[in-house]
Amino acid sequence: MATLDDLKVAQYSIAFGILLDGARESTYQSFIIPQLSRLLEAVQRPNVQISVLEIGPGPQSVLGQLPLQLRQGIGRYTAFEPNRVYASMLEKWLLTTSTTEVPFPSLGDSPRIHVKPFTNKPEENEQGEDKFDIILFCHSMYGMKPRSEFITQALGMLNEKVDSGMVIVFHRDTSLAVDGLVCRHTASFPSGIVSIPDEDKPLDHFACLIAGGFTQDDENTQLGWRQICRTLCMRDKAHPGHLLFRDPGIMMAFTRDATALPELTAQVPLVVGRQVKNRQARRHRTAFVVRPTEPCQVQKCVYWALKHRTTLAVIGGSHGGHCLQPNVVSVDMAAFNSVEIVRKEKTGLGEDLVVAGAGCKTEDIIKKAMTVGLTVPLGSCPSVGAGLWLQGGINHLARLRGLTCDVVVGAVMVSVKSGRFLLLGQVPSQCQPDGAVRPDNEADLLWALRGAGTNFGIVISVVFRASAAMNYSIWQWNTLFFHTPDARQRLADFGPALANELPRNSSADVFLYYDADRLCIAVSLSRCSDAAQGIQPVTAPPLAATAFLGPEQCSKSVDVVGLYDTEMYISTLHGGHSGGKTSSFKRCIFLREIGELDVPDLLLTAVEHRPSPLCYLHLLHAGGAAAQVAVHATAFGCRNWTYACVITGVWPRDQDGTATARAAVDWVYHVANKLLPFSTGVYGADLGPDPRDESLAVHAFGPNRLRLACLKRSQDPLNVLAYTCPLLSQAPKHRLIIITTGKHGAGKDYCSELWAGTIMKQTPEGLQARVISISDATKQEYAAATGADLARLRHDRAYKEEHRLALTRFFQDQLLLQPRLREDHFLRAVYEASADVDVLIITGMRDEDPVARFSHLVPHTRLIEVRVTASRETRQARRQLLDEDAGDGDDDAESSAWMPTLRFQHEGTGDEAVQRFAERVLVRFVHEDLRRLQGMVRVVPNFPRVGMQFRHVLDIVQQPGGLALCTALLRTHFTGDWADIDAIACCEAGGFLFAPTLAAEVGKPVAVIRHAGKLPPTTLSIVKSTSHISSSPVKDTKEARIGADDSVLSNCRSVVVVDDVLASGNTLCDVLRLLGKAGIAPECINVLVVAEFPCHRGREKLRQHGFGRVTISSLLIYTGA
Q: Where would I find the FAD-binding PCMH-type domain in this sequence (predicted)?
């Protein structure tokens, strides 16, 4: 065997360059750059430069490929690069003065390049007191062992003053093992590819790099290496002349909290060597598993995760491939395995209930329920856990009783937002833990739990509605096909000839597979009957079955436990897969029919091109009761299907992790994506953080996806449960959403288009703006239902007028069936706008007070309403209507039940006034000064309680120039005339800091509102509510009051209220009640707040308490607390 010599610097540089070029398009552009961008966005703050230390960057830093805005945020750059050639090239690249773009244009000092390796010994790194916000290892940890020591060394170099500082590692997924450290974020890229030119010289360099050395003048070795590369590679017509090699990648981000695991294991038992059923999950050997034994320990897990801002995975039945993640804590729910039957005599609800702990398996529940003659429609595998029940639950009773999630009537859950026990729906008193509460959005959470229930909290127990136990008669057929056309015809006829003829107590599953290279179509038909009659002798199968399939080959009668052993994939296919000698990977696509369009050919082609002889397709028959549940009744919104096609890749267990296993997984995804255009949805229970699942997850919840995504962001704001079915990859990054309202003919669409164009021209950074009509969704559905011309409905004013009344009736009919249709349409408009849109303008909305109604759905974005008004005569002329056809009265904004953010009077015909309004008014909502102000608000984690990210708004006045900037912005964001204002009112304590300087600027007196007893007589006072923050830690039994000097308020008719924060609206509501007591009308009050938290729905509370006509403006918008 030839001896390998170490690669010389020049050889390594050439080989590394070939490898980098080959991975750039796939790994870098599709994985590394997007992940780095997301992580740096979380670290960077407006007007604050970050410091970066990069280990082994090579000749150019990967950070140079980031968007300009992120590169501008890097103020200090340091690197360790041991390769002298690379170090010289890196320095030249960083200090370039050519016409090419400077990599980091905001560097305050010259970059520092250490031409030496980074070590795990502090004294050898010569960094002194230097600290960094980001430390990056991008494919530079090869040769560093043990890796945990190097990462720990890097953690000690993070800036202690920045909570968001991170050590970020990119590495090959198959070879990164970091023991003992908990990561904050992790992501994988299993489909990475390296493309190498199929030429001898590049292959020689590539092979030397992989081998770790080169041979001196050994031509035979070189020939052998080339042959190995060409044998093991993949080829693709899209990359002619290149050899493709798999390059799976992983990203891990660690913070200073990476060493916090002992804090958790001191409170919750750590489990060593926990074996899970999913073989892919077992590969994550650096996962940590804790096993709580009582509900309060689950709370401790959540509190720990919130405190350290890390993620958790959950182990139930452990069938899911995402129950273990590298360097992530998994919460094993095995101890919560009790099953309790609550008979209807005790529930008082007229129905029996089964309460099952989240650690129960399907078989546990079924066996306990059978003892009292009951059952729950659960899945077909006895060892499946709670993940199945909460995400659908396809079962043999689905046609008769519905899916498992359809019979979920209650649950106990630990909130991953607050750590509190939540009671949802029907929960018997004996099953309620101490301290449990019913949340305000209980109905929403219970709805989400029924179909997407692993996403919103850690479930302790689930309450099912039970029904009478069933026994089953089973008949099975297995047919060999020698000719594909015969098999195609069998599939095409299956529905009309058999499945569609079966009553609801029967179902017929189909299996497609190959046995000894012969195509087989197997059918298993089951019929259920009341178990009270006992197990009856099996009878003849239904006539339709024998007419279509001939005599059965196997039949038996079983109870529900025995039913498990009749599953053909366990007992029949390839001799049965129940021996524990195979591994599998599955994804499930919903099909309306298996005989329509190209579906039969796709199914047969899929099994024909299986990568392993053991792969098969399983078509589960449903419909019936499962299909009759309204799509919006539960989170499981995919209802219009008859067959669930389970695409199952199977391989011998001793080939786990090999090319055979990877090919089977690739085959599953390939078939799923081929069937997707013909499907009616995707089963979400299988889906997880694998990026290949994202395109499938888009179809997992039907029309409920956007509502679920919104609920996910509000109930899991820190994304603690990050490894569940992905509801939505990222929230839109719109900085401003403008809702343009007004009566027909006011010119809403015309103004909106001009405003969009003006905003794009007038903003220095060239913001992107787009106009979208919220009525498009209704127009599409109306056109499909009535045959109307969709294009003319959108663009032909006269045609639209003809259909206006019919369209309105159509929408109202839809609203009766879908009460949340308005919210769904709003979310659809927001999320379907282009990702690069900064300002979104929505027209066609006729909802009352849309900002109060919808702002909590987009708590990350400023939402304003601009009402366009015009006289009745002008609107008639624009609509070309006669006086008697006008349809609505004068556009009297003063009679409205709520105040819009802004009004624009549109009487003229030219563009000038419309554009001037955008330049002078709208552009200020995206002004760079607002970002400067936002940069002055410090974020304090875990204050005033664990899990809360406190925005220290009052810190603005402690920053140089902060108060002056805030005062200037408050003044310009007032939409009225300061000459009409009598006083500026403020309530202690936050308002006291901002109101006086504003009052001095505009020359108005301050009306001071304080706690009663702190002002001398004569005062007006009212009973005070508790604010969002002050209600958190302490309860005061005394009745608190607030008041103001009566002599000041009695002289006021118009007032501006200034406060620091609008959250729940309690404090502001008290102030408005006090002003009302002083005789000041709501329409004469303007409110200016520094920061608003829309998720708490403060505006809606004010509207409900009669203050809808108060004009409210805010400078900053924050999601969360």
A: 282-469
